[in-house]
Amino acid sequence: MIITxxxxxxxxxxxxxxxxxxxxxxxxxxxxxSDSGSELVVNLEAEDHQALDSLxxxxxxxxxxxxxxxxxxxHFGDExxxxxxxxxx
Amino acid sequence: MRRTIYWxxxxxxxLCIPLVALAQKECPDCDKAKLTSPLDPNWKQFRPPPLxxxxxxxxxxxxxxKQDCGDCHMKETPDMxxxxxxxxxxxxxxxxxTCHGDVVNYRAMPDRMVCIGCHxxxxxxxxxxxxxxxxxxxxxxxxxxIHKIDKYKQFxxxxxxxxxxxxx
Amino acid sequence: xxxxxxxxxxxxxxxxxxxxxxxxxxxxAEAQGDEVVVDKWIKGACRFxxxxxxxxxxxxxxxxxxxxxxxxxxxxxxxxxVKGFKGFLSMYHPDRLKYPMVRQADGKFKRVSxxxxxxxxAKKFKELQSKHGKDSVAYYGxxxxxxxxxxxxxxxxxxxxxxxxxxxxxxxxxxxxVGGYMTTFGTDEPAGSYSDIEKAKTFFVVGSNMSECxxxxxxxxxxxxxxxxxxxxxxxxxxxxxxxxxxxxxxxxADPGTDLAVFHCMAREIIKNGWIDNFFVNNLxxxxxxxxxxxxxxxxxxxxxFTPETVSKLTRVPVANIVEAARLFATQGPTMSLWTMGxxxxxxxVWANNLIHNLHLITGNxxxxxxxxxxxxxxxxxxxxxxxxxxxxxxxxxTRLITNEAARTQVEKAWGIPAKSIDPKPxxxxxxxxxxxxxxxxxxxxxxxxxxxxxxxxxxxxxxxxYFKGMEDAFLVVIxxxxxxxxxFADVLLPAAFIYEKGGVYGCSERRSQLTxxxxxxxxxxxxxxxxxxxxxxxxxxxxxxxWNGDDPAKNYQMAWDDYRMCVKDSEHTIYGMTxxxxxxxxxxxxxxxxxxxxxxxAKRYVRGQDPIMDMPHIEKVPPQAMIYFYADxxxxxxxxxxxxxxxxxxxxxxxxxxxxxxxxxxxxxxxSGTMTMRVPEIARSQPNAYVEIHPNDAKQYKINNGDxxxxxxxxxxxxxxxxxxxxxxxxxxxIPWFDQAWDxxxxxxxxxxxxxxxxxPEFKICAVKIERVGDPRDVAExxxxxxxxDPFPIKV
Lengths: 89, 168, 797
Fold this sequence. Notes:
Chain A has about 90 residues and is α+β, with helices and mostly antiparallel strands. Chain A has helices at about 15-20, 50-60, 80-85; strands at about 1-10, 30-35, 40-45, 65-75.
């Protein structure tokens, strides 16, 4: 399970629209916004890397006002243990 | 987009470690709570629980013994020690135990009830709704000198030659 | 609301992201679990050194759970040292004394009721007084008692028993500073305040390791120095290279006891270079040898013998350092001097104090913003509680001399006792008191009984061996919160309340009084000293004199305070305007003189416009045109004395047989004899035992390695403790901190009990010793405390 703290960079003035659209994504939790309204802080939750990538792709596609998504903090949960315990390079 | 994700994952991997610790405050393996007094002879039997990868919990990983914190950390974590002694805390003799406590109340990351002892205005100014209330989360551990490192260098402890006292 | 781990991670992640984006992050979630919630924060003062830090005591469920600095206090601005911050933990140590106890025939203590204990003490004291005279029972108090308590015991003894056998541990710590101020200015305590620190440009720190002993005042100076390293100058005069020296520009490493020559030499340099203040020299200085008034020329001539070269040879301070110190002191002002035990605990303590005042007077570095000659007190209430209430054998409330008839008459009137009932003859000072203490059948010992409170002479008297027997033989009543080396000699043990279990007023170094409110109940049957004093008074027939014996402790303290306020109303130490209500409301307390309930307090004395006494002719007459006037001058000329004190070294300099200087001192964590601080884990760990600091050159010569056990021998006794081989002083000087109560490491078995002839303060700081390696490193990190009241004293006395 991956939990991120991510920034959504959105088009100025589109905040309300984006927040409404985000309601349709249960994996996304809105947390904070900048004063300018062009940056949102959200949590994204996904099973693994692939799921996270696909979530981002779906978000970008469904909400055209999103300019960019950047993960500023990633909690890897159990995945990191799997990595360290496995012999995969 | 994909490249951004990977770049930030690597960055986050480095940065998230202390936060993981913050999240895993409860330590079911740890028998620390059983100790009541620091003068309790039981502290000698204390064995730290195994450390999960990346975990940095609120227990001192090495037995304290009777040693003064500084004596050991001077050798074991010299960079940290140098940072401390060169800082305002070092100049003003605010030593390890003042913030980190002792065997029974040890904290790797002292919380704001420790900071409030001296910095009560700053603690008061913290938004009551702040999600992270641990001061050292932003005011990084021992890097007190980050803004003023050049200034503090003038007061390094081993500059006694400046007094030009023969025989000293 | 308790968060799940998942929510916690999410919040942390979001907070991090928000932080990185500089977005204010306020989440409607509840506060997290690491907060100690308190029911209330109660305003008070710190229990430890003389800085007088303002604190707030956090109380939850009737227990003290935390202490935080009060940012609005004008002493510490919210900062605390480790003692202030953690020291309160000792309140809940299991060793707290909870019940009155009386020693039985078998030598063991037995619990008794308060009535039994107090009746016994009253009966025994009365019996001794009737058999051996009114002066056969002494009171030995402390600079850590509340002002109201010291005042009460002082009143009971001097006004009730008509006996001046009242002294206290400030005799061991501040007496020479009192002597210095009294002889130079005619009245006790500094002219300036801590607020001068922020206005000063040069600091002369002498005989004080401020960074460890007054860390919060040191912080104020260090802060100035760090902000402007080129504009602020710090001179440190002190045989040890302490952590205070880290911020120093000039270090004057004078051998212990030789610094009188350094001060005279600085004065000589100042005059030679024309750096004097002519207005001060012509109008405000009286040059005197102590016996005879002389002129400035005579002073100049007297100083001629103290050339930098001669003084350098005598003291080991490099010539260039003395010259530079004089230059900085006189030309880079305003200059503030700060000192503590390094000057006071000396056989020439008063003189050393005088010579510092000299430097300030001839350069005009006093009574101006940022310029002051400022003595720091060691104890939280030595100034307020003992010096100001006159709880010493030669004083009356308002630091007035007991030999002064007018002062006696004023006090007799205030106390409502018949004229001429106060004995004009001073009682015994501390050392004489303990030397005179003994068994009832010992005709050579006039003192037969003693009440000791809040101090530990069993550990803190110099040349301790000499005084154990007196304490053992006499009828000794001890009020304390823990078993100590002194309770081991006690016949009656009365359990006391901690400051936060009773409240009261503390007065710090800068004439500032601060009120602590009671926060919690004392454990068991422990009682405030004030209650004990008043109950004793009642049982001995002095209920009228000490009427504050009711059931409401807060009211008792206020009554005692008001009585004291009235008693010093018309003295130049007036605190009449400091009502309890004001002290309760004000965050920072008040500084005396404070003559009226609307007076804001006085930061600077002797200056018109600031000091109210300048315009109160019924207290002191000051000419209307004078802007600065030392009104307490005994000659009524408004001048301060500049003394031509001859050079004299320490009482016991090193010689062939005892080749080392031994100097004693303190460490930041431990307080005095360690009875409280050694019970706080963080503190005990940092300093679990005493040690001796020895220079690497000396260590090499004696084949001593770091940690080796060494024996320190003086003409009076010996001790065994680990060596710390470290470059902390010039070779030939050893240092031992005195907090350790372990018998092997009690430094006062070795120290000398020679006293200053004026102040009667002993020379704790200097004696001659020899040293010998006795063994390999041994684990002595024992954190020694006396846990059991019935533990016998380590030796047969």
